[in-house]
């Protein structure tokens, strides 16, 4: 036993790596190792001999295992020291810029628009995406024969045969949020309502699901002049230009009277949109003074209060500002497209810091 001990203690002490150490473990205390074979011989001894040899063999086995564990830890510590010497870094050097995550253009533009209108005192209002037919159409003065209520344009939820309850739809605009907010808060009121909307359409500039943002302001002395100022300030801030010219064209929307579509002066020189200059005009949104019937649906007295409303497509203005040619790409989940058109996750848009840094 003394010869075995001296042999393996010396071999373990001189082992240069963990592979050699493992070979020594197998040779010494493995199933067919020398010490293991010695312990099998105990069965051939007399009781008196086993009482002497047994404890010595167990002590030898424990000593060899302890020496193996100590050497293994020593080799690991030496490897770590070598790695630390080789893989050093100067922590006083400036950090390397690394992009953490990517913000989708729709999310970015929603935050930009929200920041602009928040600066003008508009709060954010939200509502359900599955709406009753009354909130989506009737409360907004949209008559029953209006084309927007046809199943070829609007997604209606399934109803069992004989179910006479009012139908529900995937909201076709965020205007129902205006009704819900008027009913909940009353007047005066100043809110914007961003969110997803749904219509049965699909081509380069239309998708079945897209994003809108609508604004509503109600007070006792609000006019089209206030609407014009708000939209001018928004366009200048959003497109980050010093001056802009808007053109209001008479139009018709069931929920506003009078109604106007709004164009901005621009140019497409070299295929690039430049806002505030040139001889072209680009339609960007619809607007008008809130119809008295809509105020009544929101439980607001139209003889005492009046207001304006406007709505625009978030996806559309994102395409215009950032030169994105196809609306369908917004919803393709293509990481290459997102890395190209996306925004750094930590760059929060602010008016004083810049919307689109």
From TrEMBL:
The gene is pheS. Residues 107-349 form the Aminoacyl-transfer RNA synthetases class-II family profile domain. Gene3D superfamilies: Bira Bifunctional Protein, Domain 2. InterPro entries: aa-tRNA-synth_II, aa-tRNA-synth_II/BPL/LPL, Phe-tRNA-synth_IIc_asu, Phe-tRNA_ligase_II_N, Phe_tRNA_ligase_alpha1_bac, Phenylalanyl-tRNA_Synthase, tRNA-bd_arm. It comes from Roseovarius marisflavi. The keyword Lipid metabolism does not apply. Binds 2 magnesium ions per tetramer. Belongs to the class-II aminoacyl-tRNA synthetase family. Phe-tRNA synthetase alpha subunit type 1 subfamily. CDD domains: PheRS_alpha_core (cd00496). Tetramer of two alpha and two beta subunits. This is Phenylalanine--tRNA ligase alpha subunit. HAMAP family: Phe_tRNA_synth_alpha1 (MF_00281). GO terms for molecular function: ATP binding; magnesium ion binding; phenylalanine-tRNA ligase activity; tRNA binding. The keyword Acyltransferase does not apply. The lineage of its organism: Bacteria, Pseudomonadati, Pseudomonadota, Alphaproteobacteria, Rhodobacterales.
């Amino acid at each position: 036993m003394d010869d075995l001990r001296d042999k393996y203690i010396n071999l373990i002490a001189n082992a240069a790596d963990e592979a050699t150490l493992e070979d020594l473990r197998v040779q010494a205390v493995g199933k067919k190792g020398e010490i293991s074979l010695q312990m099998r011989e105990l069965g051939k001894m007399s009781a008196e001999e086993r009482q002497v040899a047994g404890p010595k063999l167990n002590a030898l086995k424990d000593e060899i295992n302890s020496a193996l564990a100590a050497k293994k830890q020593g080799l690991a510590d030496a490897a770590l020291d070598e790695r630390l010497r080789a893989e050093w870094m100067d922590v006083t050097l400036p950090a390397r810029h690394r992009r953490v995550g990517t913000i989708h253009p729709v999310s970015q533009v929603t935050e930009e628009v929200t920041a602009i209108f928040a600066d003008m005192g508009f709060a954010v209002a939200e509502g359900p995406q599955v709406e009753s037919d009354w909130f989506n159409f009737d409360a907004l003065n949209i008559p029953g024969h209006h084309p927007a209520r046809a199943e070829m344009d609007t997604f209606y939820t399934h109803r069992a045969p004989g179910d006479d309850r009012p139908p529900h739809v995937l909201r076709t605009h965020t205007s129902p949020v205006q009704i819900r907010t008027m009913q909940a808060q009353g007047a005066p009121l100043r809110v914007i309502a961003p969110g997803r909307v749904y219509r049965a359409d699909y081509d380069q500039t239309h998708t079945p699901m897209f994003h809108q943002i609508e604004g509503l302001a109600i007070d006792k002395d609000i006019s089209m002049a206030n609407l014009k100022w708000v939209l001018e300030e928004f366009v200048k801030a959003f497109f980050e230009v010093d001056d802009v010219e808007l053109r209001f064209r008479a139009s018709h929307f069931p929920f506003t009277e009078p109604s106007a579509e709004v164009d901005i002066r621009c140019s497409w020189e070299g295929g690039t949109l430049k806002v505030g200059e040139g001889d072209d005009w680009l339609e960007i949104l619809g607007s008008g003074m809130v119809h008295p019937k809509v105020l009544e649906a929101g439980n607001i007295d139209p003889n005492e209060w009046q207001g304006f409303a406007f709505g625009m497509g978030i996806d559309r203005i994102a395409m215009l500002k950032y030169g994105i040619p196809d609306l369908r790409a917004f919803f393709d989940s293509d990481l290459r497209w997102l890395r190209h058109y996306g925004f750094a996750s930590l760059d929060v848009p602010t008016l004083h810091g810049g919307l689109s840094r």
